C-alpha cells in the first residue's frame, strides 16, 4: 500500500486534499493503535514510515490543513518559561503499601468489613516503574498532560507528553469519547532503552540514571520537547480520574473502554474474585517480573466496583479500595570474574567484585562492592565463585551469598595488597578498624582525584559540569593539585583541555565561580572528613556557625554536639589538626571561598528529627535536608526512638522496616513536600 500510494499521491494531487489528509491520518492512527495498544501491527515499520512521509509531504504542501492532533505534530517548541503549575481535576492520591501476604490479608479484611461482608471482586495490575501522569481529553482531543507533583498540583508537560508515540492525540471514535475525561497512567522507559541510555551516559562521563523512575521523570521534565522526543518513552494507562458525559460501573469496564479509546492498557491485568486469587497473581509475577520488557516493582490491587470504591472512600493520602504490594528486592545469580581494589578519597581500599554482567531489577549489574576485607572474608567470596547478587532499590548492588556447592576448586582467594595499587605507598590497617588504607595521602593520585570529585559533587560544592573526566585531565596537566586550585584556574588554562571550546570553558569558569559562597555545611562536607556525611556536616555547621571555630574546637567540644559521638569527634579533630588541612583552608580563603553562615535552630520544625530513605523524585536528598534544617529540624542517618519522621522515597531500605517496628510516622514524598510547604 505505501510505496504505490505514495507515488500516486505525489504524481496526481487529489481534488480535495483535506479529505485525503484526514483519510491518511485515520489510516495512520489505525496502525498506531494496532502497534501500540493491540500489539498486533498489520503492516511493516517501513510501510508505516512511508504513510507518515506521505502525510508530511501533503501537510507541507497544504499548511492550512495541519491540525494539532495530526500524527505529525508531536514535537513542538519548548515552553518559554519552564513548566506551568496545573491543578488536577481530582487529587492524585498515593497508594498504601503491602510488603507481604499478611499485609494483603489485613487489607482484604478491612475491605470486607467496610462493605459489610458483601461479595467483592478485585482487579490485579502490575505496578509500573516510571513517572505518574494525568492526561485530559476534551471531546476526544488531548488538551493537557501533567506530572503528579504533590498530588493536588502538578506541572504542565503537555508538549513533552505529545512526543510519547503511544499516547493518542485523539481518541478513537469507536469508543464514543465523552465531553471530558482525565486518564492516569505511568510513563516509563522500556528496560532495553534505559540500559542503552545509561551506557551512553557513562561513555559521556555522565551519571547513569539510578533507576527506571528517575529516568522516566527526568526525560519528561526536559524543558525542550525535542530532548524528550529522543527518549523512547512509553505509556500505560491504569485509571480514570474525573469523567463527564460517561458512566462506568466497574474499574475493569473503564480499562476496557480506555483500550478501545486507543490507550495502551497492560494486557496482564486480571479480574479475580478472591484474596487467594490475588495472592496467586502476586506470587506469579514476583517470580516472572524479569521476563517483562518494562520495570515493575509490585502489584496494585483495586476493588472493581466503582460503587464499592465510593463506599470505602479514601484517607487524606490514599484510597481504602486499593493497595500496592511491593516485590521484595530482586536477586540474581552470576560469577565473580575478578576482584580489584578501588582507592577512595580517604585512602580506603575497597575490594570490588568484577561480575559477569547480569540483570537485576531491570538493570545490568557488572560490579558489586565487597565493602572491606572482613566482609569479603565473612562471605568468603573468591575469584571464580558463583554468587547471588541483589539490588535493594539503590544503585550499588551487593553480594548476598556465595554458592559453595558450585565451586570447582579453581577459585582463588583474594589478598588485600600490601601496597597501594595506584601510588605504591604502604597500606595500613589500624587495630580495631575494618578498613585498609593507602598511606600516600596527598601524594596518591587516586586519593587526590577522589577528593576533588567529592569536593565538587552535588551534595558538596555542586560545581556543575566539572566531573571526574575533566578533573583527571586537570590533574594530568598539573593545572590543579587540590580543591583550592580550582578557584584560581584561568580560562586560558581551561582552554588547553581536550574538547574545550570558548563557550564550554566559560561555563566551567562560571560554575566554579558560582560555588565560591557555599553554605558552611556544604563546605564542611566537601572537605571530605572521614565519618562526616551530609547530616553530620550539617550538625557541625549549625553548632559552630563558623569554620574557624570548628577548626579550633577540642575533642570534647565536638563530642558534646548532640548527635555526634566520640569516633566522629576524633576524626574531625584529627583532620583539622593536620598541617595539610590548615594549608588548604588558608588557600581556600585566599581564593575567595567564603561559607555563608547557617540559620540557627529556631523555626517551625525545631525539635523534630527527620530521617530519609529511598529515592526522592522531586527534590534531592540534600535539598530536602537543607529545607528541613532551614526550618530548625535535625536530620539524622538512622531511625531511632528520637526520630519524628521517616521520609520514604521510592524503594526504601531497611530504615523503613525499622520505622514501622518503632511506630515512627512515615511520610511519602508528597506528604513530606506538603509538610514543608504548609504554614
Ligand atoms: S493506581 C488512587 N495503578 O504507583 C490510585 N498506580 O502510589 C492511583 N502506579 O505513582 C494509583 N502502576 O503512578 C495505580 N497499575 C497501577 C500503577 C500505579 C504504577 C504508580 C502510580 C503512583 C504510585 C501509587
TrEMBL record:
Catalysed reaction, written as an equation: NAD(+) + (deoxyribonucleotide)n-3'-hydroxyl + 5'-phospho-(deoxyribonucleotide)m = (deoxyribonucleotide)n+m + AMP + beta-nicotinamide D-nucleotide
Task: List the active-site residues.
Answer: 127
Q: Which controlled-vocabulary keywords does the entry list?
A: DNA damage, DNA repair, DNA replication, Ligase, Magnesium, Manganese, Metal-binding, NAD, Zinc
Enumerate the Pfam families for this protein. BRCT, DNA_ligase_aden, DNA_ligase_ZBD, HHH_2, HHH_5, OB_DNA_ligase
Which Enzyme Commission number(s) are listed?
A: 6.5.1.2
Cofactors that this protein relies on = Mg(2+); Mn(2+)
Residues that hold Zn(2+) according to the record = 420, 423, 444
Task: Please report the stretch or stretches of sequence annotated as the BRCT domain.
Answer: 600-679
Compositional bias, Basic and acidic residues, is annotated for: 1-14
GO MF annotations, alphabetized: DNA binding; DNA ligase (NAD+) activity; metal ion binding
Entry-linked InterPro entries: BRCT_dom, BRCT_dom_sf, DisA/LigA_HHH, DNA_ligase, DNA_ligase_AS, DNA_ligase_CS, DNAligase_adenylation, DNAligase_N
Q: Which Gene3D superfamilies match?
A: 5' to 3' exonuclease, C-terminal subdomain, 6.20.10.30, BRCT domain, DNA ligase/mRNA capping enzyme, Helix hairpin bin, Nucleic acid-binding proteins
Provide a GO CC annotation, any one. Answer: cytosol
Q: Where is this region: Disordered?
A: 1-23
Q: Does the keyword Phosphoprotein apply?
A: no
Class of this enzyme: ligase
Q: Which positions does UniProt annotate for NAD(+) binding? A: 45-49, 94-95, 125, 148, 186, 302, 326
What's a GO biological-process term for it? Answer: DNA repair
Tell me its family.
Belongs to the NAD-dependent DNA ligase family. LigA subfamily.
The record describes the protein's role as: DNA ligase that catalyzes the formation of phosphodiester linkages between 5'-phosphoryl and 3'-hydroxyl groups in double-stranded DNA using NAD as a coenzyme and as the energy source for the reaction. It is essential for DNA replication and repair of damaged DNA.
Which PANTHER family does the entry link to?
A: CHROMOSOME TRANSMISSION FIDELITY FACTOR 18 (PTHR23389), DNA LIGASE (PTHR23389:SF9)
| Official protein name in the record | DNA ligase
Gene name tied to this protein: ligA
Amino acid at each position: 500500500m505505501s510505496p504505490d500510494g505514495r507515488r500516486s499521491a505525489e504524481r496526481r494531487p487529489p481534488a480535495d486534499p483535506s479529505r485525503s489528509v484526514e483519510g491518511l491520518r485515520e489510516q495512520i492512527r489505525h496502525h498506531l493503535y494496532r502497534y501500540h495498544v493491540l500489539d498486533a501491527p498489520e503492516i511493516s515499520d517501513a510501510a508505516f514510515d512511508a504513510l507518515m512521509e506521505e502525510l508530511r509531504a501533503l501537510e507541507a504542501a497544504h499548511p492550512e490543513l495541519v491540525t494539532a492532533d495530526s500524527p505529525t505534530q508531536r514535537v513542538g517548541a519548548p515552553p518559554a518559561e519552564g513548566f506551568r503549575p496545573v491543578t488536577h481535576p481530582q487529587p492524585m492520591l498515593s497508594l498504601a503499601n503491602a510488603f507481604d501476604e499478611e499485609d494483603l490479608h489485613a487489607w482484604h479484611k478491612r475491605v470486607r468489613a467496610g462493605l459489610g461482608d458483601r461479595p467483592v471482586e478485585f482487579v490485579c495490575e502490575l505496578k509500573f516503574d516510571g513517572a505518574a501522569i494525568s492526561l485530559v481529553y476534551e471531546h476526544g482531543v488531548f488538551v493537557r498532560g501533567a506530572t503528579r507533583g504533590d498530588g493536588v498540583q502538578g506541572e504542565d508537560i503537555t508538549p513533552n507528553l505529545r512526543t510519547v508515540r503511544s499516547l493518542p492525540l485523539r481518541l478513537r471514535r469507536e469508543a464514543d469519547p465523552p465531553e471530558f475525561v482525565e486518564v492516569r497512567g505511568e510513563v516509563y522507559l522500556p528496560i532495553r532503552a534505559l540500559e542503552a541510555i545509561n551506557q551512553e551516559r557513562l561513555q559521556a562521563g555522565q551519571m547513569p540514571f539510578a533507576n527506571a523512575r528517575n529516568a522516566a521523570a527526568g526525560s519528561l521534565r526536559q524543558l525542550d520537547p525535542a530532548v524528550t522526543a529522543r527518549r523512547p518513552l512509553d505509556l500505560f494507562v491504569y485509571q480514570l480520574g474525573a469523567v463527564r458525559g460517561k458512566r462506568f460501573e466497574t474499574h475493569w469496564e473503564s480499562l476496557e473502554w480506555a483500550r478501545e479509546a486507543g490507550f495502551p492498557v497492560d494486557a496482564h491485568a486480571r479480574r479475580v474474585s478472591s484474596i487467594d486469587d490475588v495472592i496467586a497473581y502476586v506470587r506469579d509475577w514476583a517470580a516472572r517480573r524479569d521476563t517483562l520488557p518494562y520495570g515493575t516493582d509490585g502489584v496494585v490491587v483495586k476493588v472493581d466496583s466503582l460503587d464499592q470504591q465510593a463506599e470505602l472512600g479514601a484517607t487524606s493520602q490514599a484510597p481504602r479500595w486499593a493497595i500496592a504490594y511491593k516485590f521484595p528486592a530482586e536477586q540474581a545469580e552470576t560469577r565473580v570474574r575478578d576482584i580489584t581494589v578501588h582507592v577512595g578519597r580517604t585512602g580506603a581500599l575497597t575490594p570490588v567484585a568484577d561480575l559477569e554482567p547480569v540483570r537485576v531489577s531491570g538493570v545490568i549489574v557488572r560490579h558489586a562492592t565487597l565493602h572491606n576485607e572482613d566482609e569479603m572474608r565473612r562471605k568468603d567470596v573468591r575469584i571464580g565463585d558463583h554468587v547471588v547478587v541483589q539490588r535493594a532499590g539503590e544503585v550499588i548492588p551487593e553480594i548476598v551469598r556465595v554458592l559453595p556447592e558450585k565451586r570447582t576448586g579453581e577459585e582463588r582467594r583474594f589478598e588485600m595488597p600490601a601496597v597501594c595499587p595506584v601510588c605504591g605507598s604502604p597500606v595500613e590497617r589500624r587495630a580495631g578498624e575494618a578498613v585498609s588504607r593507602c598511606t600516600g595521602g596527598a601524594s596518591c593520585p587516586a586519593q587526590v582525584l577522589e577528593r576533588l570529585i567529592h569536593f565538587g559533587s552535588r551534595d558538596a560544592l555542586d560545581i556543575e559540569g566539572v566531573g571526574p573526566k575533566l578533573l583527571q585531565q586537570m590533574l594530568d596537566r598539573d593545572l590543579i593539585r587540590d580543591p583550592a586550585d580550582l578557584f584560581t584556574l584561568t580560562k586560558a588554562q581551561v582552554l588547553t583541555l581536550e574538547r574545550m571550546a570558548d563557550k564550554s570553558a566559560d561555563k566551567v569558569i562560571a560554575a566554579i565561580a558560582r560555588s565560591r559562597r557555599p553554605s558552611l555545611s556544604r563546605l564542611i562536607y566537601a572537605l571530605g572528613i572521614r565519618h562526616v556525611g551530609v547530616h553530620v556536616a550539617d550538625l557541625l555547621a549549625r553548632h559552630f556557625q563558623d569554620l574557624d571555630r570548628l577548626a579550633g574546637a577540642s575533642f570534647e567540644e565536638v563530642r558534646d554536639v548532640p548527635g555526634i559521638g566520640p569516633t566522629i569527634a576524633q576524626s574531625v579533630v584529627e583532620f583539622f589538626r593536620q598541617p595539610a588541612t590548615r594549608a588548604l583552608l588558608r588557600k581556600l580563603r585566599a581564593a575567595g571561598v567564603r561559607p555563608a553562615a547557617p540559620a540557627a535552630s529556631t523555626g517551625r520544625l525545631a525539635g523534630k528529627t527527620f530521617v530519609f530513605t529511598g529515592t526522592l523524585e522531586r527534590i534531592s536528598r540534600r535539598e530536602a535536608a537543607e529545607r528541613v534544617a532551614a526550618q530548625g529540624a535535625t536530620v539524622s542517618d538512622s531511625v531511632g526512638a528520637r526520630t519524628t519522621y521517616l521520609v520514604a522515597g521510592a524503594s526504601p531500605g531497611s530504615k523503613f522496616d525499622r520505622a514501622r517496628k518503632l511506630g515512627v510516622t512515615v511520610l511519602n514524598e508528597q506528604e513530606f513536600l506538603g509538610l514543608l510547604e504548609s504554614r
